[in-house]
Every structure is written in C-alpha cells, then in structure tokens.
Amino acid sequence: MFRVALKMLVGDSARFFGIVMGVTLACFVIAQQGSIFIGIMGRTTALINDTTYPDIWVMDPKVQYIDDTKPLQDTQLYRVRGVEGVAWAGRLYKGMIRARMENGTFQNCNLIGIEDSTLVGGPPAMVEGTVGELRRADAVIVDEAGATTRLARRTGNPEDAPIPLAVGDTLELNDRRAVVVGISKGTRTFQSQPMIYTTYSRAVSFAPKERKSLSFVLVGVKPGLDAQEVCKRIAEQTGLAAYTRAQFRWVTVEYYLKYTGIPINFGLAVGLGFLIGTVITGFMFYSFTLDNLRFLGTLKAMGTGDVKLLWMILMQALVVGLLGFGIGVGLASLVGWLNRGSALAFLLPWQLVVVAGAAVVVICMLSAMLSMRRVILLEPAVVFKG
Fold it and tell me: 121, 198 in Cβ contact below 8 A?
C-alpha cells in the first residue's frame, strides 16, 4: 500500500514539485533568517566571546550591555582584588576613538586597552605579530577585518584596490602616533567597527581625558571555587555588578532583544515564510488528494480501512516533508557557505535545524489533516457513479 501511495505522490510530477517547493520555501526562510538573527546576536557579544581568560566581568551596576560602558575609578581594581576567591584581576578599557590615516581620512574604531603587566584581555588569535609586541612604544594591534577594509589605505586613483594596513604602518589616534605591530583575528562586532588593541595606560593616553577611565575589571577565580559565588562576594563587598562570561553574554543579548527592533523584524520574516509555506503546501496537498479521491475510493471499496488510508496520507506528507526539509536547510547552509568571510552575520547551530524540522512537521501535519477529512468522509460508491 505504501508503494501505491508513493506512485500516487510522484505520478503528477508538477503538483509533486509544487508541494515540495512549498515546504522548501518555509524551511529555507526559517533556517536562513534564523541563522542571520543568531549571527547578529552573536556579534553583539563578540568582545566577551573573544576575551577568553577572565571568569568574571566586573562593572558599574548601571551597565546594560557590553557597549554601554560607565567608567569606574581605578581604585576599584584593588577593592576587587581584595575579595576572597579572586585569583587575579586586571583592567580593561573600552571606548570609541577616531583614527586618522595617512591620506587624512578618519575612521571610528573600537579602542581596547588591556592590562599592561599581564596583557590579559588581548585578541584571541594573531595573524601576524604577537600580543607581547604591545610593550613597544606607541604599539597597537589591529584586527584583520578592519585592516583590510575600513583602515586600508586608498590611493589617489579610485580604480585602484585598497592597500591593507600592515605591520609597520602608522595611524594617528587623537593626535598621537600609533604604530601597528600586529594583525589579530577575531569575531566581527555588531557595528563592524575596526578593533584596535593596546595597553591600558596607552589607551587612556590615546582617549579623550576623563576623570574615570576604567571600563571593566577582568577577574580570574581561584581553582576549585564557584564563579557565581565569587560574583556574589564581589557585588556584596564592592557594590559593583559582577557577571560570569555566560551571564554577561546573556545580559547583552537580552538588551538587544528587549530594546531593539531586531527580533520583531526577523520574527515577521520567519512567520511570513512559515505562513506562506503552510498555505502553499496545504493547498497543493489538498488539491492532490482531491485529484486522487477516485483511487482512494477504489481502495476503500476493495476493503482497505480508513486507518490504512490515513497512514498512506501521512507517509506522503512525510516524504514531502523530508525532501523539503533537506533542500531548504541545504540551500540555507549554501548561502552561509558562499558568504563565509563576508560581512554577513550567519550562524546555523543544530538547535535551529531542529526548530526548522519541527516547523516542517507542523506544516506537513496541517496539510495532511485537511486531506484526511476528505478521505474519512469519502463514500466508496462515489467511484462507481456516472
């Protein structure tokens, strides 16, 4: 009976193709738009993800997300170091600064100042040079994406390709000379601004003068202790906010989910794709069932029960769903692969694949339920009428 069901399904190739494309469209939109949404959310926490050494981030209690820096007094560093369970603590400066290139153009950049003595908080990986080179005079490290795009040197001829910033080149940061000693590789940020790393003391001298300059305190926990317990101790003894890396990531993501229109925009796109896929698939599948009622009626007249006929409908829906799911997820993955290394934020985790699969199941079940009703109400005698 299942072989008969398959022959019925593929017998009308045009309608079979239309049903599969309806499922494919819904699955593709869900997977592709969901991947871009997750990729964007991942970029909002780029600095937290790339700064792997600290177990705890300490900041002003009013900080809402990673880019919402509210400077602290430098003396807060020593208060944090005095908390029981803290193995080490280092300073981190984060701010925006304008870089002036050799041709006189300006570019806004993220300036990251890491602890002078330990260099904790530096870039996660180096393409050229080492983090230790920051101990040289006027030294800075620029991320690879910024060095090859926004900070690349332009010639006088607009047709010439930009020349990537290289080790040994110089920048001007707040009227001060900075020498590139390394090129780093890390996650693109939400605003895709170039990342410039230097030591904390040099970052403070580069940045406009402020009474307070300490953005975050990075903390390492003593072995064997629970990071969340140490966070509570820091908050109680210093009055500052202390989060583990995972907690600070979620605080940042939650801010963007709550106070920006990103979730609504992507949610509407995903919902529209689901709705269109459901309508197309449901209509095509229902029309397919109507055209095959005479065959189903014949089988029913020959003694085939309703349960077996319903299983045939479910199997047809399952075959369509598997094909549409495979093609849809495959196309979404292909889009991400073709745009690897570009500015497109794309991240397809296995959880999203499961969500897309669940959506396909719902679409196929709704489509099958419409057809099942006609099969149950079908009278075998209708086959033999005029």
Answer: no
**Interstrand relation of 139-143 and 176-185 (parallel, antiparallel or unpaired):** parallel
- Return the SS3 of 142: strand
Secondary structure, 3-state, 348-381: CCHHHHHHHHHHHHHHHHHHHHHHHHHHHCCCHH
Cα–Cα nearest to 76, from 212, 206, 209: 212
DSSP 168-186: T-EEEETTEEEEEEEEEE-
**pLDDT tens per residue across span 115-160:** 998 999 999 999 999 999 999 999 999 999 899 988 888 776 667 7
The two structure tokens encoding residue 86: 């803290």
H or E element at residue 126: strand 125-128
Phi, psi for residue 148 in degrees, rounded to 5: -95, -10
* Residue 61 three-state SS: coil
Q: pLDDT tens digit string along 21-61?
A: 888 988 999 999 999 999 999 999 999 999 988 999 999 99
Q: Using an 8 Å Cβ cutoff, are 1 and 312 in contact? A: yes
Angle at 316 between CA 313 and CA 320, to 5 degrees: 140
Question: Could you tell me if residue 43 is left (phi over 0), alpha (psi between -120 and 50 degrees) or otherwise beta?
Answer: alpha
Cα gap 81→75, rounded to integer Å: 10
For 206-274, give the DSSP string: HSPP-S--B-EEEEEEPTTS-HHHHHHHHHHHH--EEEEHHHHHHHHHHHHHHHSSHHHHHHHHHHHHH
Contact 96, 111 (CB under 8 A): yes
Phi, psi angles (nearest 5°) of residue 361: -60, -45
214-243 pLDDT, tens digit per residue, is: 999 999 999 999 999 999 999 999 999 999
